[in-house]
Amino acid sequence: MKSRRKFIQELSGGLTATLAAASITLADSLPQPTKPIRIGIIGAENSHTITYGQIFNRDRKFPGCEVVGVWGETPEFAKNAAEKGHIPLIVKDPAEFKGKIDALIVDHRHAKYHLDAARPFVKAGIPTFIDKPFCYRVSEGRSFLAMARARKTPVSSFSTVARGAIINDLKAQVKAMTGIQHVISCGHCDVDSPYGGVFFYGIHQVQKLMEVFGENVTRVRVTRKEADASATLVFASGLQATLVLAKGRPPFELGVVTDKGLTKLESKVTDDALEPYREVVQLFRDGKEPRSHESLLKEVSILEAMEKSVTSDRWETVE
Q1: Whole-prediction pTM value?
Q2: Same domain, 312 and 171
Q3: DSSP state at residue 112
Q4: pLDDT value of position 272
Q5: 166 and 121 in one domain?
Q6: Same structural domain, 137 and 170
Q7: Contact 179, 258 (CB under 8 A)
Q8: Which run of H or of E encompasses 222?
Q9: CA–CA distances in Å: residue 134 to residues 122, 164, 220
Q10: Is 124 helix (H, G, I), strand (E, B) or coil?
């Protein structure tokens, strides 16, 4: 027979091995801590930069995500964004972000600066969110996205007006309707804006229409009345949409015309204000692009055609 001491030693050893195996299994099943994400922002002229800082830094809405630095178009813009957005570092050159960030936000007012600012970081594999509009010219956007795809770097851009539960609800309402003859869209837009004319703020209405009614817009025409303007967008299906481009500050609203008359599209749900930022974090953390590259280019094509029509005062084809 085994001695009492030997029996206890064997029992203890077996129990220790069992507990060790159990602890490994338990550790594997527990949620693992997520890797911190250091975010850099290029551009401080927009109030959006302050909002990013407040959400990620001041309010800590997404633990592990922090805006670590900002570059501003002027020292004053950078200082204002850093102070109000609780951003600890101001860089004098975006190149200073090298080795200090895991993700990038580009936030210029004029879309013509977006791609040049983002390019070296996307080439280096840094996930990048570009505030809307994505870019100013389709040709530049196409080559940029081809580069991003080749480098396997996730890139995206969107308007918060065109994302979230409210938009999904409106889309479902429209899908259930029959006999829609015309679409009416209203919102702020200054076609003479120094920040890209119709691109600046026009993006909100264009992207919202694309989300709710589809992306296949084939031609556009813009008609001016002094500072204000309206645009007609024609879809491949024949559906037409009229956009009120008001220099004032009307809210962004949608309506449809059917045989029963004009119906304002109103959501029956409440939006989660953080949902768009959740998509940005998912882009950074998981590499999940919330929109296709084709969609990013399509809205720029529509805006380019609208810009041409502002000058030509005639129908322009959406390339």
Answers
A1: 0.87
A2: yes
A3: G
A4: 85
A5: no
A6: no
A7: yes
A8: strand 217-225
A9: 14, 19, 20
A10: coil
CA 236 – CA 222 distance, rounded (Å): 18
- Phi, psi (deg, nearest 5) at residue 193: -55, 135
Residue 142 lies in domain: 37-160
Residue 234 lies in a domain: yes
**pLDDT for 244-298, tens place per residue?**
999 888 889 999 999 999 999 999 888 788 999 999 999 999 999 999 999 999 9
276 domain residue, yes or no: no
Report the DSSP beta bridge partners of residue 200: none
The C-alpha torsion from 230 through 235 and 240 to 244, rounded to 10°, is -20
Residue 66 sits in the same domain as residue 200: no
Grouping H, G, I as helix, E, B as strand and the rest as coil, residue 234 is strand
Mean pLDDT of all residues in 232-239: 96
Six-digit token string for 251 = 């809210």
End-to-end CA distance of the chain: 90
Element (H, E) at 105: strand 103-106
What SS3 state is found at 18? helix
Residue 297, both tokens: 């280019």
- Of 99, 133, 160, the position where a domain reaches its end is 160
Neighbour count for residue 130 (Cβ, 10 Å): 27
Q: Indicate whether 3 pLDDT > 90.
A: no
Same domain, 168 and 306: yes
The candidate with the shortest Cα–Cα distance to 198, out of 103, 284, 300, 312, is 300
- Check if the beta carbon of residue 44 is closer than 8 Å to that of residue 70: yes
Q: For position 229, which CATH number holds?
A: 3.30.360.10
309 in a structural domain = yes
Name every residue whose Cβ is closer than 8 Å to that of residue 144 and which is 6 or more positions away in sequence: 115, 118, 119, 122, 135
Check whether residue 148 and residue 228 sit in a common domain: no
Co-location of 206 and 313 in the same domain: yes
The last residue of one of the domains, among 131, 160, 189, is: 160
| Structure-derived torsion over alpha carbons of residues 246, 249, 254, 257, reported in degrees to the nearest 10 | -50
